[in-house]
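Next comes this protein.

***
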Amino acid sequence: MSYKIRIDKKPQKFLETLPKVQRERILEEIYSLAENPRKHGVIKLKDSEPAEYRTRQGNYRIVFEIKDDILVVLVIRIFIRGDEY
C-alpha cells in the first residue's frame, strides 16, 4: 500500500528557487514518505488541525498532512529551520 505525494503550489515554488542538489535531496525525502509517512524521524505537530507532521532534510523542514482515507501525503510547507513554525 503506497501513498500518493502531492505538493501544494507554495512549497513547489520554494523548491524551484533552491539549487539542484538541495532540491533533489528534499524531493527524495518527500517521496520516501509514500512508503511510510509515519517513519522514524517524523514528528506530529501539537495543536494542529487537521493533524500536521514534519520531517527534515538537512536544515530544511517539510510539513505535511497524511490523508489515510485517500492514501495521500500532502506537502503544505517547506522552510529553512528557524524561519517558521
In short: Helices lie at 9-17, 20-32. The beta strands are 4-7, 43-44, 52-57, 60-67, 72-80.
